[in-house]
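Consider the tokenized backbone below.
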């Protein structure tokens, strides 16, 4: 059967990564988390003194350092989870913490950062058979993707999910700070000049406020089978 490209875009913490990863596992596709790539660049910037809560992001220094930032992924484990590697080091845990989350959107507005990640993402899609999630996958990275989904849920519901995810991992966060971070990221992601978060005209909207993970998976599988009948 011909393999296709599946683009899943949407707001922060809308559950799109879980959805995209589970779908890839079910249909035997490769999954790529494009947000992890922007997070890894942000972690590099923090570790090298180019980004902090106090000073913001030193764009010039970061753009100069881009050739030294190599991002790759480990193959997916039995659970479908891949780990992100920054210059060969496993940073999967570090890229999910609040410090990275609060600096990633300003890093992701930098055009040079975006061009480099976009080129890498397009290479991953050369052979098709890929599910990629992010903000601009259906609009900029793969405008010709055969299946496009745009995921949304209310900011409050997304904050509740994110607090649970972070506290399950042992991070101490409050609902208020997480909600504020989500609102701030929504604002930056939707208003930036370069590849802002937008629903592609041919993307199908999935509003998952009141859906279980199982219901979402069925919805996605139905859409996939309508594109790729067996
Ligand atoms: O999906 P995520 O929350 O891990 O993404 C982290 C940040 O990266 C998000 O705030 C915006 C940015 N991002 C982007 O600009 N373009 C993408 N394709 C994916 C993520």
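A designed sequence for it:
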């Amino acid at each position: 059967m011909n393999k296709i490209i599946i683009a899943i875009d949407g707001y922060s913490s809308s559950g799109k990564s879980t959805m995209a990863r589970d779908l890839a596992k079910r249909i035997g596709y490769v999954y790529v988390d494009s947000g992890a790539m922007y997070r890894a660049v942000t972690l590099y910037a923090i570790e090298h003194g180019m980004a902090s809560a106090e000073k913001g992001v030193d764009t010039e220094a970061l753009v100069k350092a881009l050739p030294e930032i190599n991002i790759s992924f480990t193959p997916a484990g039995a659970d479908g989870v891949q780990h992100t590697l920054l210059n060969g080091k496993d940073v999967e845990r570090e890229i999910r913490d609040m410090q990275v989350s609060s600096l990633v959107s300003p890093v992701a507005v930098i055009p040079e950062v975006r061009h480099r990640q976009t080129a890498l993402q397009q290479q991953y899609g050369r052979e098709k058979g890929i599910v990629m999630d992010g903000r601009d996958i259906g609009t900029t990275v793969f405008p010709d993707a055969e299946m496009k989904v745009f995921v949304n849920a209310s900011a409050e519901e997304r904050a509740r999910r994110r607090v649970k995810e972070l506290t399950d991992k042992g991070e101490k966060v409050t609902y208020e700070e997480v909600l504020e971070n989500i609102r701030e990221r929504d604002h930056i992601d939707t208003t930036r000049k370069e590849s802002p978060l937008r629903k592609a005209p041919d993307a199908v909207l999935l509003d998952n406020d009141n859906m279980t993970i199982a219901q979402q998976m069925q919805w996605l599988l139905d859409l996939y089978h309508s594109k790729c009948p067996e």
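Residues 164 and 170 are 10 Å apart (CA to CA).
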